[in-house]
Description:
By secondary structure, this protein is α/β, with parallel strands linked by helices. It contains twelve helices and 15 strands. It has helices at 12-15, 42-49, 107-111, 115-127, 144-155, 167-176, 189-196, 212-220, 242-248, 258-263, 265-280, 297-305, and strands spanning 2-6, 16-20, 30-39, 66-69, 75-78, 90-94, 99-100, 135-139, 159-164, 180-183, 202-207, 221-229, 251-254, 288-293, 312-316. The strands form three sheets. Strands 3, 4, 5, 6, 7, 14 and 15 form a seven-stranded mixed beta sheet that branches. A six-stranded parallel beta sheet has the order 10-9-8-11-12-13, with helices on both faces. It has a two-stranded antiparallel sheet with strand order 1-2. Helix 2 (42-49) crosses helix 12, helix 4 (115-127) crosses helix 5 and helix 7 packs parallel to helix 8. The longest helix is centred in the last third of the chain and has 16 residues, at 265-280. The chain is globular and about 60 Å long. 50% of the residues are buried.
Amino acid sequence: MQAWRVHENGEPNRVMRLEETEPPTPGDGQVLLKVRAANVNFPDALLCRGHYQVRPPLPFTPGVEICGETEDGRRVVAGPALPYGGFAEYAVADAAALLPAPDTLDDAEAAALHIGYQTGWFALHRRARLEAGETLLVHAAAGGVGSAAVQLGKAAGARVIGVVGGAEKAAVARELGCDVVVDRRTEDVIAAVKEATGGRGADVIYDPVGGEAYAQSAKVVAFEGRIVVVGFASGTIPSPALNHALVKNYAILGLHWGLYLTRNPRLVRHCHEQLTELAARGAIRPLVSERVPLGGAAAAVQRVADGVTTGRVVVMPSLEDGTAA
């Protein structure tokens, strides 16, 4: 089979190599999956760089989220068991963690439903307890993680403010349903959010960016608001001033979704059922901006790492090289 493998850490377009190799052999409790679609996530870039919290042995195949097919023909959503990730024709996954792919979504959309939407659901509902009528602020609202949070926020009845970088991403955020869109490249984020909320601020802030985005969040969070920290795509990990959280009465909540896989896998399945129901009634639908062939995976991971994509870029091994749909 063909698989992208990383033999040394570095930038994805430099260290990912497409190689011919034997299909992986599943271990105890694992299954072999034919990859139908593999969604590109920012953690794939971190894996290549050696900066992710999980560091698989070299060489490894990145690709942490797929729609795959079991040997008995079932279409499933899974997080592959590294080092045998999804940017390959076959991957390995834990049998107990397989989730049924929603019938209402195609392979690319199903592959993109898992990590980003689970993260958004746990952040908004489990951690922040978002309520209908509240104001939700989403940083990087046109990206893969942010677009999921926007859709989930709207489905929950929240008023959503999306912060984006650039006119193209602003247009995407509006199409996703953001009630207010703030372009950080041309607008003062703090002033714009305060104006949009009548000076009150946002009840819940979803931050996958860190750095300056977190500093802005602390200045626009409402009384008894909640800032949910889900990642640091900016590359800068902020150091919150806890005295500020005290005097303004707001909460700083961390979310590492992967912990639920081991600490409370029942909740992961419950979340997937909720997401499947939302997808069935059209309340959410992953925004797939590109479908690329297996040969384009390294370039796709690099584009996601560089922050120049919108929605989700999905690798489709069945597509012929040179073809994108």
